[in-house]
From TrEMBL:
It comes from the Bacteria. Residues 233-810 form the DUF5916 domain. InterPro entries: Carb-bd_dom_fam9, DUF5916. Residues 41-194 form the Carbohydrate-binding domain. Gene3D superfamilies: 2.60.40.1190. It comes from Christiangramia oceanisediminis. This is Carbohydrate binding family 9 domain-containing protein. GO terms for molecular function: carbohydrate binding; hydrolase activity, hydrolyzing O-glycosyl compounds. One of its GO terms (biological process) is carbohydrate catabolic process. It holds the Pfam family CBM9_1.
Length: 812
């Protein structure tokens, strides 16, 4: 079988890659010491205990330059102390011109335009997985989990910090409890550590341990932290009980709701943590950016629920976990209408399944083995039908009780390489549909850190009543990762039965694709540029069965950033004809689109200024065809002061004369020439009283129309060609669409204690969809405002309880 030959090739390539890796740069060493009396975290590091700690000094530039020593008038010193509860950090950040320090007030994890001090801690010193803690000159906290170069700011833990400022500069004090870290169970700890200072008004950044930007990843250049010994950390148990009440009014009907539940974090040991959500409620998650979707694929949304974004770096390996599957639309939702009997109507057909509970266990051993386990259970869902004559009701199961599982094993070695195994499983009660996916992954660097080899082999299995379907997919890439000139090649494959959509998302399968690329970039300022990159790339897309060419294309791109932080860039692509096997909504059938080219460009001004802007333009033109596309985005932003910031975005898109799917009849697949235009307006405004209290306004209006040209309907014939056909349009089958949606969120957030917050949220939403595609934008708005609006007011209070603090209180 070709699938097994491909898997054998990947394993062979994995076997010939060298496993050894040495960091050629000499690492700085900081030795800390134990203390009995902890310093006061007030941002003024003048406690006598700090005088006993050594200084981490001699910072060097990482951006825009490479290794230049920090100037004397910006001297930076860092001290670290520890006890059995936490580590303590003090940073002395000298500044000659204190009045120039940027210090915009923001809420947690939102950095915007503020100078900052950052510490990265890698408790396993594996060159890959580390935790980042940031404090800005305004006092805002941010924390993230890092995997390579990827930052996950949805990671949130409870720690303490404070800042102060005087004529000499500004100062930071931090207390990071061991409850916020995972570390090996050893008497003597050796951690990787890095300090970073960003001097925003100078557009400069400095690190403690030198980073060679032209080789490998920044996480592989940490210094060493030693001296932490025989620590006896307290029990890691945190509770997050919540109360939430809401009032909802829609179409004259008012409903109220009250919920209570709790999240729990428990440190099983120093390395592994259990996270649970009990009686979860996601009533205050952000609105999805819904658009008019006329394509063959589902619209994929980002995750807005904190439980599914925090600490999930292990579970997202291999891109097999799309968390929105948990609690998504029932499998039988769309079939409910087809189940109607004579004289019946649907009185209830829920669009979402309810999450009963969820948990995840994750961590890493002292030998670098990461282990993750995820489980979630959703309740059954039923549609309710009512007989219009007798008044009797009947029920139809649209989604049974379902169990979602993920198991991950991820072995890190040589500070930059890994092999991983992952299995996802969805089991539904009864004879419905079950899914199981297993994958093997590798990510290997050679000894010199100059080449990376990465790949993945995935098997999928879907168990349907009376049918078992197995699929296979693989991918492999080789990339030069050293120097200014780099290149890469890659291959992706999936057979026609590959399906991971029970817990993951794959929009297409049955492909056999090849890609390549080469680039040139600078790592130090040159002329007027702090950095720039030129890239050339290409692709050849094929169908696996039947083995036919789908598309061949190549292009280039350019990105540059000037010394004054003005960024610009763009790209050009040329593509052969494209065989679209999915627009037809039929198996092994395609529609043929002509050769086409695309051009894009953008400019982005300096965000440090009060007024800044982003402009993006994308053009697409089909040769020997009237089909074309244009998309324009304009995003101005204005910072009124350090507390008030406003961002407005306008997006215009127009697609002309695209041959698009209309419907399928008994004998034919009907297409029509479609014009589609969209206008999107959005506003995001923030007023922050301080770093713990703030108001946020989020508004979005999206309007789109799709109009099929009268008399230009066709039917699909052989070789993807379209033949004119007389297709009568009636009110019942009119494919034209007028789509308009309006969402407004106004929230007040107050962090009244560490880890504890109250959120008061008002929501207003309106939606309309009809066939009046000839309406102008203002006319469509008039029809939108004729629809009933949903008004929702909710208050959610979450309180953080640390087991150790609560125990001491009760003892007292």
């Amino acid at each position: 079988m070709p699938e097994f030959r491909r898997l054998s090739l990947l394993i062979f390539l994995f076997g010939i890659v060298a496993f050894s890796q040495e960091n050629q740069e000499k690492r700085k060493l900081y030795t800390t010491q134990r203390i009995e009396d902890a310093p006061k975290i007030d941002g003024i590091p003048d406690d006598e205990i700090w005088e006993t700690a050594e200084d981490a000094t001699n910072f060097v530039m990482i951006q825009p330059g490479d290794g230049d020593p920090i100037p004397e008038d910006h001297e930076t010193r860092v001290k670290i102390l520890y006890n059995d509860e936490a580590i303590f950090i003090a940073a002395y950040l000298k500044e000659k011109h204190v009045g120039r320090i940027l210090k915009q007030f923001t809420q947690r994890d939102n950095l915007e335009q503020a100078e900052l001090f950052q510490i990265d801690i890698n408790t396993y010193d594996d060159g890959e997985n580390q935790t980042r803690f940031i404090v800005t000159a305004a006092g805002t906290q941010a924390d993230a989990r890092l995997t390579g170069e990827n930052q996950d700011f949805s990671y949130n833990v409870v720690w303490d910090s404070a800042i102060s400022m005087d004529s000499e500069g500004w100062y930071v004090e931090m207390k990071i409890p061991y409850a916020a870290l995972r570390f090996p169970d050893k008497q003597v700890q050796t951690w990787g550590i890095q300090f970073y200072r960003e001097i925003n008004h100078l557009n400069e950044g400095y690190v403690w341990n030198y980073v060679n930007k032209s080789v490998g990843q920044q996480s592989q250049y940490n210094g060493l932290l030693k001296g932490i010994e025989n620590i006896d950390p307290p029990v890691r148990l945190s509770l997050y009980p919540y109360l939430q009440g809401s009032i909802d009014r829609f179409d004259g009907v008012t409903e109220s709701n009250f919920n209570a539940g709790m999240d729990l974090k428990y440190g099983i040991n120093e390395s592994f943590t259990l996270d649970m959500t009990l009686v979860p409620d996601f009533g205050q998650t952000a609105y999805d950016d819904v658009v008019l979707n006329l394509g063959p694929f589902e619209q994929v949304f980002g995750e807005n629920r904190a439980f599914f974004t925090e600490g999930t770096e292990l579970f997202t390996k291999g891109n097999l976990f799309y968390s929105r599957r948990v609690g998504s639309r029932p499998l039988g939702f769309n079939d409910a209408q087809a189940q109607l009997l004579d004289n019946e109507r649907i009185i209830e057909n829920p669009e979402r399944t309810d999450l009963i509970n969820a948990l995840k266990v994750s961590g890493r051993t002292d030998r670098g083995l990461g282990i993750g386990f995820f489980n979630a259970v959703t309740n059954e869902v039923k549609a309710v039908y009512q007989d219009t004559i007798s008044g009797e009701n009947r029920e139809k199961l649209t989604e049974p009780l379902a169990n979602y599982n993920i198991v991950v094993l991820d072995q890190r070695f040589n500070k930059n390489s890994s092999i991983s195994l992952i299995n996802t499983n969805v089991t539904r009660n009864g004879h419905f549909r079950d899914g199981n996916v297993s994958a093997f992954m590798f990510d290997i660097y050679n000894r010199e850190n100059s080449f990376n080899f990465a790949g993945q082999a995935t098997m999928s299995n879907v168990n349907l009543p009376g049918q078992n379907i197995t699929g296979f997919a693989s991918e492999f890439s080789a990339e030069r990762t050293k120097g200014k000139f780099r290149y890469e090649i890659g291959h992706e494959f999936a057979n026609e039965t590959y399906d991971i959509n029970d817990l993951g998302v794959n929009l297409v399968n049955n492909y056999n694709n090849f890609n390549w690329g080469t680039s040139y970039q600078i790592f130090e300022p040159k002329g007027n540029y702090n950095r720039y990159q030129i890239r050339i790339f290409g692709q050849h897309l094929r169908r696996y069965r039947p083995d036919v060419t789908v598309n061949t294309g190549m292009g280039g791109s350019f990105f540059a950033m000037t010394r004054k932080r003005f960024a610009f860039g763009g790209g050009l692509n040329i593509n052969s004809e494209f065989k679209d096997f999915f627009e037809t909504r039929a198996v092994d059938t395609y529609v043929l689109y002509n050769d086409f080219g695309s051009l894009n460009g953008f400019v982005s001004s300096d965000y440090r200024k009060k007024f800044a802007y982003d402009v993006r333009l994308n053009l697409e033109e089909y040769f020997e065809s009237s089909q074309s596309d244009i998309r324009l985005s304009i995003e101005p932003r204005f910072r009124f002061n350090d507390k008030f910031n406003l961002i407005y975005e306008f997006v215009y898109a127009y697609q002309n004369d695209r041959a698009s799917f209309v419907t399928k009849t008994t004998d034919d697949i009907i297409f029509g020439n479609r014009d589609q235009k969209s206008i999107e307006n959005s506003i995001n405004a923030n007023y922050n009283f301080n770093t713990r209290q703030g108001l946020n306004l989020s508004f979005r209006n999206f309007w789109s129309t799709a109009t099929f040209t009268e008399g230009q309907f066709t039917r699909l014939i052989e070789d993807g060609e379209l033949q004119p056909i007389d297709y009568p349009v009636t009110k019942a089958n009119d494919p034209d669409v007028n789509f308009n949606i309006w969402n407004l969120d106004l929230s007040y957030r107050w962090q009244f204690a560490p880890g504890s917050e109250a959120i008061l949220l008002y929501r207003n939403s309106i939606f309309n969809q009809d066939n009046l595609s000839d309406l102008a934008y203002t006319q469509s708005l008039d029809r939108l405002f004729m629809q009933p609006a949903r008004h929702n007011l909710s208050l959610r209070v979450v309180y953080f309880i640390d087991y150790n603090i609560a125990r001491n209180i009760f003892k007292t």
